[in-house]
Write a structure and sequence with these properties.
Helix content is 25%, strand content 29%. By secondary structure, the chain is an alpha/beta fold. The chain is globular.
């Protein structure tokens, strides 16, 4: 894994950018905070082309949670794959919490990301998600590229764009 400080990977050409509506971020924060003092995981799903992926929904899989880990069974992930196929959606990212400020990927995190593929994002949210996801630079943003690589904060900000789900020019 590359350290946070390096920018060796050219993410703009190899990994699709994520476009995330602020409503998805808000729903994600609510789901992550429900577990308070347990690690938990949620998935971002949507549609993807070669250079951009648009997150449309957030899914909380069935899972087992402890103070320092989470586990999603093969059966629970299979149910998600069936659900996604029925709606012609794609798995784009996972977000999971850590108990403290460490936002790197542990060996357990790498093993637990059983649905990872090239371009798959894994965001690590500190302090069990109590402070939320934004600003994004408090989170660890990892992408799967021959294993998980942690993006430097500036690269993560370029790769993940939060957009408003409603804009009212009338008011």
């Amino acid at each position: 894994m590359l350290p946070r400080e390096t920018g060796i990977m050219n993410t703009s050409t190899q990994i699709p950018r994520l476009i995330v509506p602020d409503a998805v971020v808000a729903a994600s924060e609510r789901l992550l905070r429900r577990w308070r003092k347990r690690e938990t995981v949620i998935y971002w799903v949507g549609d993807a082309q070669s250079d951009v992926a648009i997150v449309t929904s957030v899914i909380r899989p069935r899972q087992e949670n402890t103070l320092g880990s989470f586990h999603v069974s093969s059966e629970a992930n299979a149910d998600i794959v069936v659900w996604l196929c029925a709606r012609k959606l794609k798995l784009l990212a996972q977000l999971h919490t850590h108990p403290g400020s460490y936002v790197g990927h542990s060996d357990g995190d790498n093993l637990g990301a059983s649905l990872a593929f090239h371009g798959f994002y894994s965001l690590v949210v500190p302090h069990y998600g109590r402070a939320g996801i934004l600003p994004l630079n408090q989170c660890g943003v990892h992408v799967f590229h021959y294993g998980f690589v942690e993006l430097p904060p500036a690269a993560a900000e370029k790769q993940i764009r939060i957009v408003p789900h409603v804009t009212d020019f009338l008011s």
